[in-house]
Amino acid sequence: MMTARVNVLLIILMYGLMYQVSAYSAQPDDKNLGRLFTSSSERYALDRQRREDLFQGDNLQNQEEIAEEAKTGSSVVMNGVLKSSKGEKVVWINGKKVNGTKGPGDVRVYRGPDSNNRIVVGVPGKRAVKLGPGQQLRLPDGKVAENHLAN
What we know:
Elements: H1 2-25, H2 30-33, H3 40-54, H4 57-72, E1 75-83, E2 89-93, E3 96-97, E4 108-111, E5 119-122, E6 129-131, E7 135-138, E8 143-146
Antiparallel strand pairs: 1-2, 1-7, 2-3, 4-5, 5-6, 7-8
């Protein structure tokens, strides 16, 4: 009886030893892995390049025009939706928080936000339009445009 227990114990120890050896030999060589993350100087260079690309020429002018249209009331920009830890969703239009269905100016939120954070907005004298985060409704022509920078 004693030898049976010893044999079982030896078998378990051998399996454990074989597992350790196979796990060690399966480890890849560190030299072949390469660099997983960028260095701080590489991150700085990437950030600088992104900033320069975003704020040059037509992109900057386009963003300034959109911001001016939103200030003058000639457009409706759906900035986004914030979801609180309690699950309540808060919609932001033209840089202002929407209280219930009343947005800034004459803007009304008829429905939403849905699962894709899209809302249906309306302005007196215009048709109701579905907007997603970053989209802009231009009131003079009623067209919806993307309000983010194109890559």
